[in-house]
C-alpha cells in the first residue's frame, strides 16, 4: 500500500516532495521504478520501516509515473493508486488531491445538512448515463436531476477495471477513478458541481472482492485469507495474522473519498461477504471512524450497506452492538413490488408470490403490505431460495424506516435479467406509475434507477471488456449457461463482451419529451415534489404506516397521516374503498377518470392515485 506524505519546507510551500510508502511485510527488498516528466525511468530502493512498511522520497514534478518491484519481481501498480492512466497492469500516476480548487465551502450536506436518510437517491452508471460516458458529461445532465427533485446522486463503482467498459464490480484498483470516466480530478469536478446545485453524492465502493484480472495485491502481502471464502474466492484477511494493515487499507480508502473527494455517502457492495470474526467487525470500525470524521468535517457522512442478511443489526449503532451502517438496501421491498406488478414468481421471487411457508395466509398483495410496513418478508421466516429460515424482525416502533432504501429498479434487478429489461418493458405505464407511487410515498428512503423516471426504452445489460481471450470466452459462455438453465436460447442472451451490448444500454435522452415518456417523467416529478412538500411522507416511523388491501379484489391503500396512496391492480374493478371520506385527489395517473366517492375512490384499473381524506 502506498501512502503519500507531502513534505513542504517553509521556503518551498508550492513544491511538494512526495514520499511513497508501501506495506510489504515479508519482502527482503522493495524498489520503485519511476519516470518524472517524461525523462528516462529510474529505480530507487525503498527504506525499511517498522511493521512491514517501506518508504522512499522522490523529486517533485508535473507528471510522476511509478510502480513497485517486490524482491526484484514484476513492476506492479500501487495498491493505493489514485490514477491508472495506462490500465490495471501498468504504472500508477501520482495524484495530489489537495491541488483541486473546491467551491463548496458552504456545503452542509444533502437536504440542507439533514443527510441522506429520507432523501431521494438516483442511481446511475457513468458510462451509460450519457453518450460520452464520462463524469464531465454527466455534469451537463445535473439540471435534469435537480428538476426531478433528486437529493443524492449515487454513482456505480468508479474503481479502475480491465478494458474500456464495465459495471464497475470487476474493479481491481479501489483507490483509483477509472481513466475512461476522466480520472480522479474528474470526480472532484463532478462532486463540486453537484454540491453547487444542491445535490449530494454517494459513491458505490466494493470491499468484498477484487476482479479477476489485474489483482496484484498478493505480491505485496497477505491481503487475502483462505480462512474465509466468498463467491469470488478467498476473502480479505480481516481477522488473521497481519490483518491490521489490510483493515487500514480498506478503512483508509473509505475515509479518503469523504475527505479528499468530498463525497457525502458510500454504498458498500454486498457487505455480507465481508467475513470477519474479529471482536470488532470491520464495518463497525469503519462506522466509528466515519462518525469521527463527520464530527471533524462538520457535515453528515453516511454509509449505506447492500446486505443480504435481512437483519436490523446492520443499521443498529455500534454502541448498541450493531454494525453501525446508516442505511441498507432493501431488496425485499423491490421483490414484493416486482411480483405484485409483473406476476413473475420464478427463482428468488417465489416466496414473494405468497401462499408459502414465508406467507401462508396471503398472496403477493399481502406480501407487499408486509414489506411496506415491516421492511422485510424474510424476517425470521422460511426462505425457499436459501433453504433455511432467514432474517430477523424489524421493530416498527424502534427502527427508523428511512434506514431502508426502497426501489422499483436497480442496476442488479435490471441488469441481472437475461436481456436487461426495465420494469417499463414488463408492465404498462399505469402499473409502473402504481409501483412508483408506493415506494416514493413510503416511509423508506427511495431510490430511482437512471432512466426509470421517463420509462426509458433502452435496456441495462451486463457488459464487460476483458482483453484476455480465455477470460472473455469464460464470461460469454458463463452468462449463456446461466440463462440456458432458465429456458433461454444461447443466441438470445446478449454477449457481455460485445460492444453493442454496452451501447444498447446507453440512455436515449431524446425520449424525455416524447408522449408517454414525458407523462411518466411528470408523474415522478409530481410524486417527488409531493414527498418534499408533505413532511409526513419523510417521517420514518413504520408504526405510522397502515395498509388496507384485498387480495381477491386486487386493491391496496397505504395510509400515511391524511394521505392515501391508492393502487388498483384489478383488470376491471373501478372502485376502491377507503377508511375515511376523501376530500381531494392530490395526484392521479388518470386524473380525468379518477373520482371521489363516499368513503371510496373511483379510478381506472391498473393505475394509482394519491388522495387526501378528512
TrEMBL record:
Source organism (scientific name): Pedococcus ginsenosidimutans
TM helices/strands, residue ranges: none
UniProt pathway: Glycan biosynthesis; trehalose biosynthesis
Key words of the record: Carbohydrate metabolism, Cytoplasm, Glycosidase, Hydrolase
Cytoplasm listed as a keyword: yes
Family: Belongs to the glycosyl hydrolase 13 family.
PANTHER family tied to this protein: 1,4-ALPHA-GLUCAN-BRANCHING ENZYME, MALTO-OLIGOSYLTREHALOSE TREHALOHYDROLASE
A Pfam family that the UniProt record links to this protein: CBM_48
Stretches assigned to the Glycosyl hydrolase family 13 catalytic domain: 123-479
EC number in record: 3.2.1.141
Keyword Disulfide bond recorded: no
Compartments, as annotated in UniProt: Cytoplasm
Full protein name: Malto-oligosyltrehalose trehalohydrolase
Catalytic activity of the protein: hydrolysis of (1->4)-alpha-D-glucosidic linkage in 4-alpha-D-[(1->4)-alpha-D-glucanosyl]n trehalose to yield trehalose and (1->4)-alpha-D-glucan
NCBIfam families per record: trehalose_TreZ (TIGR02402)
InterPro entries: DUF3459, GH, GH13_cat_dom, Glyco_hydro_13_N, Ig-like_fold, Ig_E-set, Trehalose_TreZ, Trehalose_TreZ_E-set_sf
Amino acid at each position: 500500500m502506498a501512502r503519500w506524505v507531502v513534505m513542504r519546507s517553509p521556503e518551498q510551500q508550492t513544491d511538494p516532495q512526495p514520499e511513497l510508502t508501501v506495506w510489504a511485510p515479508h519482502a527482503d527488498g522493495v524498489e520503485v521504478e519511476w519516470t518524472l516528466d517524461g525523462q528516462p525511468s529510474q529505480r530507487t530502493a525503498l527504506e525499511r520501516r517498522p511493521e512491514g512498511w517501506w518508504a522512499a522520497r522522490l523529486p517533485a514534478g508535473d507528471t510522476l509515473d511509478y510502480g513497485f518491484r517486490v524482491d526484484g519481481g514484476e513492476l506492479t501498480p500501487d495498491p493505493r493508486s489514485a490514477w491508472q492512466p495506462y490500465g490495471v497492469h501498468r504504472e500508477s500516476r501520482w495524484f495530489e488531491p489537495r491541488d483541486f480548487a473546491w467551491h463548496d465551502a458552504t456545503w452542509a450536506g444533502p437536504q440542507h445538512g439533514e443527510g441522506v436518510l429520507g432523501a431521494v437517491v438516483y442511481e446511475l452508471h457513468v458510462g451509460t448515463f450519457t453518450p460520452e460516458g464520462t463524469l464531465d458529461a454527466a455534469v451537463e445532465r445535473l439540471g435534469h436531476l435537480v428538476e426531478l427533485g433528486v437529493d443524492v446522486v449515487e454513482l456505480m463503482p468508479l474503481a479502475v477495471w480491465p478494458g474500456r467498459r464495465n459495471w464497475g464490480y470487476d474493479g481491481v484498483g479501489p483507490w483509483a477513478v477509472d481513466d475512461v470516466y476522466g480520472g480522479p480530478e474528474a470526480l472532484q469536478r463532478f462532486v463540486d458541481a453537484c454540491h453547487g446545485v444542491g445535490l449530494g453524492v454517494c459513491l458505490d465502493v466494493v470491499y468484498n472482492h477484487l476482479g479477476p484480472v489485474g489483482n496484484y495485491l498478493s505480491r505485496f502481502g497477505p491481503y487475502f485469507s483462505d480462512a474465509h471464502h466468498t463467491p469470488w474466492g478467498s476473502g480479505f484477511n480481516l481477522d488473521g495474522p497481519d490483518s491490521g494493515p489490510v483493515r487500514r487499507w480498506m478503512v483508509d480508502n473509505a475515509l479518503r473519498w469523504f475527505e479528499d473527494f468530498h463525497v457525502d455517502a458510500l454504498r458498500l457492495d454486498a457487505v455480507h461477504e465481508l467475513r470477519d470474526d474479529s471482536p470488532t467487525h470491520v464495518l463497525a470500525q469503519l462506522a466509528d471512524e466515519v462518525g469521527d470524521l463527520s464530527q471533524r468535517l462538520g457535515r453528515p457522512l453516511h454509509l449505506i450497506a447492500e446486505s443480504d442478511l435481512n437483519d436490523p443489526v446492520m443499521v443498529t449503532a455500534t454502541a448498541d452492538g450493531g454494525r453501525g451502517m446508516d442505511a441498507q438496501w432493501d431488496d425485499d421491498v423491490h421483490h414484493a413490488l416486482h411480483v405484485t406488478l409483473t406476476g413473475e414468481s420464478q427463482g428468488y421471487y417465489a416466496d414473494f408470490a405468497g401462499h408459502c411457508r414465508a406467507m401462508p395466509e396471503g398472496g403477493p398483495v399481502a406480501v407487499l403490505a408486509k414489506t411496506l410496513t415491516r421492511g422485510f418478508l424474510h424476517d425470521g421466516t422460511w426462505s425457499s431460495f436459501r433453504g433455511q429460515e432467514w432474517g430477523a424482525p424489524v421493530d416498527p416502533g424502534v427502527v427508523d424506516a428511512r434506514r431502508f432504501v426502497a426501489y422499483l429498479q436497480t442496476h442488479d434487478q435490471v441488469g441481472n435479467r437475461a436481456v436487461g429489461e426495465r420494469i417499463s418493458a414488463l408492465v404498462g405505464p399505469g402499473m409502473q406509475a402504481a409501483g412508483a407511487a408506493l415506494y416514493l410515498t413510503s416511509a423508506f428512503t427511495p431510490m430511482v434507477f437512471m432512466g426509470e423516471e421517463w420509462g426509458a426504452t433502452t435496456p441495462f445489460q451486463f457488459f464487460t471488456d476483458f482483453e484476455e481471450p480465455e477470460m472473455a470466452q469464460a464470461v460469454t459462455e458463463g452468462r449463456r449457461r446461466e440463462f440456458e438453465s432458465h429456458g433461454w436460447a444461447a443466441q438470445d442472451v446478449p454477449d457481455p463482451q460485445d460492444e453493442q451490448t454496452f451501447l444498447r444500454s446507453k440512455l436515449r435522452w431524446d425520449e424525455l419529451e416524447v408522449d408517454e415518456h414525458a407523462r411518466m417523467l411528470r408523474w415522478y416529478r409530481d410524486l417527488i415534489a409531493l414527498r418534499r412538500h408533505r413532511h409526513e411522507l419523510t417521517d420514518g416511523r413504520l408504526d405510522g404506516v397502515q395498509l388496507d388491501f384485498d387480495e381477491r379484489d386486487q386493491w391496496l391503500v397505504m395510509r400515511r397521516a391524511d394521505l392515501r396512496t391508492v393502487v388498483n391492480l384489478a383488470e376491471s374493478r373501478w372502485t376502491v374503498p377507503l377508511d375515511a371520506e376523501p376530500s381531494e385527489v392530490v395526484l392521479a395517473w388518470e386524473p380525468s377518470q379518477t373520482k371521489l366517492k363516499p368513503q371510496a375512490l373511483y379510478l381506472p384499473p391498473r393505475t394509482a392515485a394519491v388522495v387526501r381524506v378528512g
